[in-house]
Design brief:
This protein is an alpha+beta fold. Helix content is 16%, strand content 44%. Strands 1, 2, 4, 9, 10, 11 and 12 form a 7-stranded antiparallel beta sheet that branches. The termini are far apart.
């Protein structure tokens, strides 16, 4: 056998011995840490007047993944039928949760935004933290001056 024929035989055996991976099912998505870090950096470059930048990573109809960047306090919000699950990607801040929402106004059915939270509990947040915010609880993210927080947000419907 010539060297080329032997090389071709070795390659053919290697290809045939490599297990085939089945196609991923519809709806599957994998965001790598490196990809999220790149998206985090990109969000920081186009911050809106409300001191935030966001993108929807995936919307599956009944739940969705978003990536949010904040470099100042956010307005309080409340979702009567939606649970928020937050994974802190980078930075630091405080989750203000509970209490009474001042300046409350509806934005969509069961969705509220306000101007301030009075009372409630403060929970310091840092990279790697995960929080579960139950439906119906007013909450706000506070960010110290000169700092930022970026988080992956999973919004899922609460059970009726």
């Amino acid at each position: 056998m010539t060297k080329i024929t032997r090389l071709a035989a070795v390659v053919a055996v290697g290809v045939l011995a490599t297990p085939l991976r089945a196609a991923d099912p519809p709806g599957f998505k994998h965001w790598t840490a490196a990809e999220l870090k790149q998206r985090d950096a990109a969000l920081a470059t186009h911050v809106a007047a409300d001191h935030s930048s966001r993108e929807t990573l995936a919307d599956y109809g009944d739940h969705r993944f978003r990536l949010l960047y904040r470099d100042a306090d956010g307005n309080p919000e409340q979702h009567d039928a939606i649970i928020d699950i937050v994974y802190v990607q980078s930075g630091e801040g405080t989750l203000m949760m509970g209490g009474t929402m001042e300046g409350r106004r509806g934005t969509n059915p069961g969705e509220w935004v306000g101007t301030a939270l009075v009372g409630g509990n403060r929970h310091p947040l840092g990279t790697g933290d995960i929080v579960h915010i139950p439906a119906g609880i007013p909450h706000s993210f506070l960010v110290p001056p000169g700092k930022h927080i970026t988080y992956v947000l999973l919004k899922i419907p609460a059970k009726p």
